[in-house]
Design brief:
Blueprint: E1 15-17, H1 23-31, E2 39-47, H2 49-58, H3 67-81, E3 87-90, E4 93-97, E5 100-107, E6 114-117, E7 120-121, H4 127-143, H5 149-158, H6 162-177, H7 183-188, E8 195-199, E9 220-233, E10 239-252, H8 258-273
Parallel strand pairs: 5-8, 8-9
Antiparallel strand pairs: 1-4, 2-10, 3-4, 5-6, 5-7, 9-10
Amino acid sequence: MKKYFKRALWDRYDGWRVRKVDGVFNIIPFIMKSRVESQNYFEENILIDKIEAFVRTHNEEIPNLSTMHIIMAAVVRAFSQRPYMNRFVVYNKIYARNHLNMSLVIKRADMKSETIIKPEFEPEDTLYDVVRRVNELVASGRSGEDDSDTDKIIEILSKLPTTVMRFAVGILKKLDNIGKLPKIINEVSPWHCSIFMTNVGSLGISPIYHHLTEFGTNSMFIAMGKKEKRLVLDKDGTVREERSIGLKFTLDDRVCDGQYYANSIKLMRKYMQNPELLLVPPREVVVDDGVGRQRLV
């Protein structure tokens, strides 16, 4: 992702310090110190008849295209237009993330074990780019031939004695608080991401509200549920049945206000219901104006 601002003394290597905000947002991180107590919840039901028709039409052009790819691409596109969603809070300070990535839990080929992939995106990415980036990592992760760096770190930590693990994780948290967490940990940690997304629909259940974590920088968790039938009321009063997928969002309330989140999710819905918009790059990428200093590009 382009570096829109030169790094300043008060920045982190993974984000620019946000200083140009309403006074209340400078205070809120000191009142609501934890990510867990700052959680807000949104729910959306996305009609999928049009999405599935789009998938069938474009499956030759975009191999292995799925409904989930379209949802992911819509989220990436919304982030390119609504940059406050890509903020995070660490140690009572708000930062604008200087990259855009997503953590995904996927099943290995044996369908018994899981692994985590962490594709990185550009704000200008189209649906073609999202599908390609995700499918490359999914193919590698599902093969199970080589453990990912994330798997290797988890394996090492899991073998530590309880007392040593408690000390090690405590040190990692403190280092993260001051922006000194080793980059290799940041890069493989699933909790250091713009969006954490899970498809619980693959388990045959409706979406859940998944918690955020104190460790890491993730401010948005999206859970996608199974395909379901629901009744829709048309403007003329006609009731009809349509198929939909439920999405549940868990959000850190400290990075932006509820209206900003609501409008952002409406924008995601627009892209999901009109996936043809995702075939071309956005006209422009909106950069976080809260950083409050001259841009490089």
